[in-house]
């Protein structure tokens, strides 16, 4: 997960040119799905953002009779909600590693192990295509976004979400601010993560021919017991080696930032999420 309204850079966010990612895939060297606690880390992020995602999907009318595609399903919180609580007819949860998603008897929730950048991937047509915290990690995000739009059935919706950091560069807490900047830089170097473009989502969806385009932004407040705070803590701990190896932090700054997340003095806004949506014209 990454988010920045400007390219993440050295120290307090100075711009750097985008490097070539040093590893293939989505950061398996940083976030190994087989590592104990990785599912819990992902779930902290889901707990922080699922409520707004669900509210948006309900507002768009998702319900019984719909066929849904959940791209980058993670631990499957949205997929299971669609299948178990909303009662849609079908959910296909696609992920490079869907081990945390449990299929449902009768085929209402199915999983597919797939790389969304594979040009041969053709999952079908769906009334809802939902994709959250995926495209920001892909250098070919424009091409993949166009393919997602092609998988939307006539009259259906494409809903995409990615990280957006509008607040941490102005944080008065230096260690927190610099640790966030170091994290974005490490993600950019290791994975290729880039969210400098995500505020263009409404225009991108419009240019793909979608109608009724809209967007909204959520910036969760950081509080000691909030899921989003636990998400950043566990993310930094998972990335500790990369954060310290990057040279962007002074000795002890990561520990100071971690202490800040557990402190009663914690008073900041988290990096947030932009959600955008558009509708495929009826045939």
From TrEMBL:
<dbReference type="GO" id="GO:0032259">
    <property type="term" value="P:methylation"/>
</dbReference>
<protein>
    <submittedName>
        <fullName>Class I SAM-dependent methyltransferase</fullName>
    </submittedName>
</protein>
<dbReference type="GO" id="GO:0008757">
    <property type="term" value="F:S-adenosylmethionine-dependent methyltransferase activity"/>
</dbReference>
<dbReference type="InterPro" id="IPR029063">
    <property type="entry name" value="SAM-dependent_MTases_sf"/>
</dbReference>
<dbReference type="Pfam" id="PF08241">
    <property type="entry name" value="Methyltransf_11"/>
</dbReference>
<feature type="domain" description="Methyltransferase type 11">
    <location>
        <begin position="69"/>
        <end position="160"/>
    </location>
</feature>
<dbReference type="InterPro" id="IPR013216">
    <property type="entry name" value="Methyltransf_11"/>
</dbReference>
<feature type="compositionally biased region" description="Low complexity">
    <location>
        <begin position="1"/>
        <end position="10"/>
    </location>
</feature>
<feature type="region of interest" description="Disordered">
    <location>
        <begin position="1"/>
        <end position="37"/>
    </location>
</feature>
<keyword id="KW-0489">Methyltransferase</keyword>
<keyword id="KW-0808">Transferase</keyword>
């Amino acid at each position: 997960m990454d988010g920045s309204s400007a390219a993440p850079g050295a120290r307090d966010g100075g711009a750097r040119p985008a490097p070539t990612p040093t590893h293939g895939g989505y950061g398996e060297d940083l976030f190994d799905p087989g590592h104990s606690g990785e599912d819990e880390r992902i779930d902290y992020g889901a707990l922080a953002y699922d409520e707004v995602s669900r509210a948006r999907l309900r507002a768009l009318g998702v319900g019984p009779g719909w066929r849904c595609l959940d791209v980058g399903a993670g631990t499957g919180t949205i997929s299971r909600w669609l299948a178990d609580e909303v009662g849609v007819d079908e959910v296909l949860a696609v992920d490079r590693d869907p081990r945390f998603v449990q299929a449902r008897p009768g085929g209402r929730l199915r999983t597919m192990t797939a790389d969304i950048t594979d040009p041969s991937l053709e999952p079908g047509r769906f009334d809802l295509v939902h994709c959250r915290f995926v495209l920001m990690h892909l250098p070919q995000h424009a091409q993949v976004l166009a393919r997602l739009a092609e998988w939307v059935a006539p009259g259906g919706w494409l809903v995409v979400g990615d990280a957006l950091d509008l607040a941490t560069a102005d944080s008065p807490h230096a260690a927190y601010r610099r640790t966030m900047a170091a994290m974005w830089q490490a993600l950019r170097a290791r994975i290729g993560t880039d969210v400098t473009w995500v505020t263009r989502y409404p225009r991108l969806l419009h240019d793909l021919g979608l109608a009724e385009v809209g967007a909204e932004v959520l910036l969760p407040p950081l509080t000691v017991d909030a899921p989003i705070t636990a998400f950043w803590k566990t993310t930094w701990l998972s990335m500790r080696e990369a954060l310290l190896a990057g040279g962007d932090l002074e000795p002890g700054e990561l520990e100071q930032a971690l202490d800040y997340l557990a402190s009663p003095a914690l008073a900041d806004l988290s990096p947030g999420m932009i959600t955008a949506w558009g509708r495929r014209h009826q045939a």
